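QUALITY CONTROL LOG
STEP: pairwise intake check
CHECKER ROLE: data steward
CRITERIA: each record must contain a sequence immediately followed by its structure tokens, with no blank fields

ENTRY 1 OF 2
RESULT FIELD BELOW
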Amino acid sequence: CRRAGAWGEAIDLLRRMAERGLPPNSYAYSTAVSACADGGDWVRALQLLEEMAARGAAPSVHAYAAAIRACDRGGAHRQALKLLLRTMPRRGVRANDYAWNAAISACARAAEWRLALGLRGRMESGRRGAPPPNIYSYNSALSACDRASEWRAAHAIYESMGRLGVPPDRVSDNALLSAYARVGRWRESLAHLDGVQHLGRVH
């Protein structure tokens, strides 16, 4: 059900299990939450998390990460941040890089570039037990700056990646080029294209 994105069928399966006296376990709930994420149904994903807790099936880090991804796909960045920064710590669940990156992506989708960069900064410093950022963290932060037309911030992020041991890839290049193009920084765009062609990352 989850792989097909058929979240309705996954949730229906939970109901049938309960009706037959087979209480859904944490794995079954996590699968249903992931199905909601595939469909971007963040409201149902959050309802399932609460239902899990009420039934004594403590949500795992994977369930929370999937719920944050549902918030990302459903355009609910505030709910994603609440899960990451309030709900998970309160319930003693340490967020993994998947959860952090999904929250950054949710902020990027909403063009909330300062929030996205703030989360990336926490990952770099290890605050709140955050894992170190990876290429997905930086690319989501770049996307946030692109959507918000913040080309200088995008440039700064891109320049810092190599120094911090996370070399840019083609997704990084495209996000930076888009940020330049969005505000008509054609000189910077051409200079960047020359640079990536020299490195063999031809677009």
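ENTRY 2 OF 2
RESULT FIELD BELOW
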Amino acid sequence: ERAPLLPIIIGSGFGSGFWPWGPGTAGALLATAIWSALSLYLSPVALFGTTLAFVIVFTALGTWATQRLMPFWGDDPKRVVMDEMVGVWIPLLACQPIDESARAWAFCIASFVLFRFFDIVKPLGIRRIDRMKGAFYVMADDIVAIRGNCDSEVDQMLLSFPIMADSMMLVDEGRRIFLTHGHIYNKVNRPRGRVDAIIYGH
């Protein structure tokens, strides 16, 4: 019995997951190319909204597609690269649209390169998520989210991964890394207890 066609199209990142030499890189590169093409025609606000919609919609669709494909392709199929596509769209949310400036291209390329680096290395406890079983965790090892000061329960209803925690403590080989938005905890108002690093973006 063959895997259903629609989950294959979505899960494989529109076929990029079938690239034999680094399917994850191929998926992330396709996602970056799609974003770059859209940035040439959309305003910054429209580009941000479209990219955010991509993250929300394709996280849900990617989880659904992975669940449908797992009986045919295994627990963590390498051909499923929609998680890489969603993962690279997240840092691209912070990038300005592509124009003639080298700065815009530099941020776009840096988003792609840094995402692939961290996706391969999987630091800060992400490797533990990668070892978990289930369609959601195939997607989730590329997503770590912390609640911002404008996020609400309505936002959570639209997303298939948790975002409502004000902070998260990741432990990696004894190192304690505190993740937060920054509107409550930051370098001035540090969290209690031992913390080796604080990552925030406020």
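INTAKE CHECK: passed for both entries
DESCRIPTIVE NOTE, ENTRY 2: The mean pLDDT is 78.
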